[in-house]
Task: structure prediction
Amino acid sequence: MIRLGRIGYVNMAPVFFRLEADVEEVVGVPTDLNRRLVAGEIDVAPISSIAYARDAEKLRLLPRLCVSSEGAVESIQLISKTPFERIRTVAVTPESATSVVLTKVLLPDAEQVPLGEDAEAKLLIGDAALRSAFEDPTPHHDLGRLWLERTGLPMVFAVWAAPEPVHSELVALEDALVASLRQARAEPELLAYESADRYGYPPGFLAR
Result:
């Protein structure tokens, strides 16, 4: 049975909406799946795009799947009362690799410290970032939006990859994942209601 990594955030819901494949799901945060994929502990997973770049010679991309945005991505937020251009310390989540590097690109002079330490800003991703946007009135800076403003380009936060040599069922699994995603796009309201039950967000927010 193919071992399939799954990031435990709500933005994975469309890819797994109606997945018809016999898999062993391995759920984790991006940095955990990054490590496990390169170590050969799982056969395919969504991993941080920077993690793929660092080990590209060992991995094969699944070219039809990624986590990306052209503009605001919602689930990756830099939170600070300090004006963005004056931020000099950022507490970064241990769950992310790409967003940590992107923060360094956007704020090259800011020191990064572990989340929980005193800092002028904090970086959150995934469901923690979404919850923060609901609960915390502190200004939030969306990294997808900031990247588009800086470069005019979309941002790829995560890619799907498999270690070489790839599992014999990889091509069939990619087809199944893409089929699930297409079905989710065809039934966005059903996807939103089902995901609301699982993840605890309002269906209207998830549909958007």
